[in-house]
Amino acid sequence: MSDFGAPPVIPTELQQYNSYVEDPKWQAKFSYIWAAVVGAAFLASVPHIVQSIRNRRLFRGMITGVTEYSVGKHYQLASGQDAIPTHVKRRVSGVVHTLCSTMLWTLPGVELNLGQMLLVGGYLAIVVASIAMNIDLVTYPNRAGFIALAQFPVVFLFGTKNSIVSLILGPGNGYERLNYIHRWSGRGLFIAATIHGALWIKNHLIWDLPILGQQKETSGVAALGVLCGIVLTSLRPVRRWFYQSFFIVHVLGYVAFFITICYHTTYASPWIFPPLAFYGFDILLRVFRYRIKDATLVPVDTNMTLIHIHDCDDGWLAGQHVRLRVFIGARVFESHPLTILNAPPASSCMPSSTVTLAARAVGDWTREINAYALAEQARLRGEKDANQSATGAQIQVMIDGPYGGCSIDLGQHESVLLVAGGSGAAFTLGLLDDLIARCTRLGRPSGERTRRIEFAWCVRSYGALHWFAPRLEALARACAGTTLDLHVSVYVTCLCAPAEVPFVPNMDVTIVERPSVVDLLRAFVTPPSCAHPNPAKASDKKVEADAESISVESVSDDIEGAPSGRVAVSDRLAWVGLGGGVAVCAAGPESMTREAQNAVARIGLTRGVELGGVALHTELFAM
Predict the structure, then answer these.
(1) Are strands 415-421 and 304-310 parallel, antiparallel or unpaired?
(2) Which stretches does DSSP call E strand in 300-392?
(3) What SS3 class is residue 321?
(4) CATH number for region 85-110+406-623
(5) Is the dihedral of CA 199, 203, 206, 211 positive or negative?
(6) Rounded to the nearest 5°, which phi and psi values hold at 340?
(7) Residues near 116 by Cβ (< 8 Å), separated by ≥ 6?
(8) Does the 55-78+289-405 domain belong in CATH 3.30.365.10?
(9) Which residues have CB under 8 Å from 262's CB, separation 6+?
(10) pLDDT (mean) for 1-8
(11) What is the pLDDT of residue 403?
């Protein structure tokens, strides 16, 4: 046979674009980029992870959930003196936090801060670039479809409650802090799928081809329609006002979407397995963390119900929450997130084998729980059997968790500002309980350097103070005679009956519109200009009432164990907050958390290095 040589090579500019060869390469490039970003986030979190390992908080309750029958040593007091570690200027930390504070700026009506907007904008830019680079997209619209498939892992990785990313980033980086990536990656998927579908439909109309009829076209239109339904029902108004409907549509929608997309293209199968693995991992951990417990419902008033879940000794961190399901009538089919009010016994000022949750009666579910508790309490009080307790209603509940938590270690900061609005105090009270116990009862086991805590709470009426007054009083008394200074400021936003103010040591109650978090933080980091007289004895208290404010103070004897031997609280304030770091935690409505972010950004830029860094954690109570 004659040898005619090598076949001719078609010039590159004349070669026909092969979508099924070239587009998967762009899928790989897109995947490498987002995986590299996750890896960079992990490297940035290494110091936080190391600190969590030292504090024995890494993965606490992540696998086993809430546990019971903990060993007795958790209830023993630590030996040693309540000594504050040597005060050290933290210049490096101050510079790092100052740079990070620029990313905290946020605007009214925007769910994201500047850092999150930059991350989301970068993600969408990569999606668009992967779709449009080096291709005639109108002629070859498959590229957008391939990039839509490549986003499946991102959507599910950041959408599950037990995410692998949450594990590798350390405590305080739960699904509620990462869920915005899930939402925006889902919108990126929708953009890519819409471009792909719209251009194919356009081409079919140009060439006079049927849009429906063939399996590929019909299943593609069905998949795009299902995806549109998922995106529309995921908008914030629907999530907030019709959550149960949103949840049902969401679950059924992605199942239907997976089925239709697999019928549409065989190239979808490899991208289906990672989401199924992520979701399976989430379900597996939930199985290990589900608990059915006995609980007591205690109605404080018609607006608040405390839920005490018994036989819970360990497995959660202060500030975390659980998803609660109560076995009351038809409500057994609903579960809602509630913050744990107390720290675990190992790090609590009031060790007990219970998990306490606070359910404010603001929705149908919480109102029904409150009404049931009030009715059951009235029934028990009316019975003549002296053996029956009238303190609350006994029920059974199912808990799933814990989840979330604080992303910063408050004990590593010299000054701590806790700001809460309404029932948001449940979050800050848990952190306060843990921090006071570590600095006093446990003798600063991890070198906690906290010296001063300001607890600011905004409520609508004086009656709301009774929700957590006994717990606040116990925590305030736990600080008496120690090197830790706690001050409680309560801001009541309506003129009510001042006689309802409960006694809490070292507490000021003021009638005022909701204070500015910027002003609170600025005053908190400004040292006093002059010393004050020595405080009175612990048995002394002062109550002043007028049309403007009420001051309730109770201060202890001079502090023992301070560097100068015996230093009064007011004298100690003069050398607090000058380089040891400031931590701010805000929990409550979106307007408050947004204001806290802007306040930390402003103070961090102007005085961050001087203060040793201003760290922030916000807990937003919104869907």
Answers:
(1) unpaired
(2) 304-310, 320-326, 336-339, 354-360
(3) strand
(4) 3.40.50.80
(5) negative
(6) -75, 125
(7) 180
(8) no
(9) 268, 269, 272
(10) 65
(11) 92
Q: What would the 3-class secondary structure string for 485-531 be?
A: EEEEEEEECCCCCHHHCCCCCCEEEEECCCCCHHHHHHHHCCCCCCC
The per-residue pLDDT for 564 is: 34
In the chain, residues under CATH classification 3.40.50.80 are 85-110+406-623
Give the span between the Cα atoms of 529 and 301, in whole angstroms: 43
- Picking from 313, 311, 326, 316, the residue whose alpha carbon sits closest to that of residue 368 is 326
Q: CB count, 10 Å around CB of 371? A: 14
Q: Which residues contact 446 (CB under 8 A, 6 or more apart)?
A: 54, 55, 411, 438
Q: Which two tokens mark 330?
A: 């038809």
As a dihedral over the C-alpha atoms of residue 295, residue 299, residue 303, residue 305, rounded to 10 degrees, the angle is -20
Find the distance separating the first CA and the last CA of the chain, reported in whole Å. Answer: 76
* 92-143 per-position pLDDT tens digit: 666 777 778 888 899 887 889 999 999 999 999 999 999 999 888 998 899 9
Express each pLDDT in 298-314 by its tens digit: 999 899 999 999 999 88
Q: Specify the domain boundaries for CATH 2.40.30.10 within the chain.
A: 55-78+289-405
Closest CA to 62 of 454, 400, 384: 400
Bridge partners of 560, per DSSP, are 566
The residue assigned the tokens 């993965």 is 59
- Residue 581's closest CA among 103, 97, 173? 97
3-state secondary structure 469-486: HHHHHHHHHHCCCCCCEE
Contact between 585 and 418 under an 8 Å Cβ cutoff? The reply is yes
Report yes or no: 491 and 592 within 8 Å, Cβ to Cβ.
Answer: no
- Of the CA atoms within 13 Å of residue 620, those in its CB half-sphere come to 19
Check pLDDT > 60 for residue 168. Answer: yes
pLDDT tens digit sequence for 558-611: 333 333 333 344 444 444 455 688 999 999 988 899 999 999 999 988 888 888
Token pair in block for residue 448: 């906690």
Asked if 553 contacts 387 with a C-beta cutoff of 8 angstroms, the reply is no
Alpha-carbon gap, residue 15 to 9, rounded angstroms: 10
Maximal CA-CA distance, the chain: 114
Instruction: Please return the burial class of 139, using the count of CB atoms within 10 Å of its CB with bins 0-12, 13-18 and 19+.
Output: exposed
Which of the 8 DSSP states describes residue 503?
Answer: P
Nearest residue to 307 via CA among 357, 370, 372, 365: 357
Cα gap 151→274, rounded to integer Å: 11
- Which residues are CB-contacts of 304 (< 8 A; sequence separation ≥ 6)? 358, 359, 360, 361, 370, 423, 464, 467
- Tell me how far apart the alpha carbons of residues 587 and 596 are, in angstroms, rounded to a whole number: 9
Q: What is the pLDDT of residue 557?
A: 34
- Report the C-alpha gap between 18 and 14 in whole angstroms: 12
**Is 416 in contact with 452 (CB distance < 8 Å)?**
yes
Beta-bridged to residue 291, according to DSSP, are 399
Burial of 428 (0-12, 13-18, 19+ CB in 10 A): buried
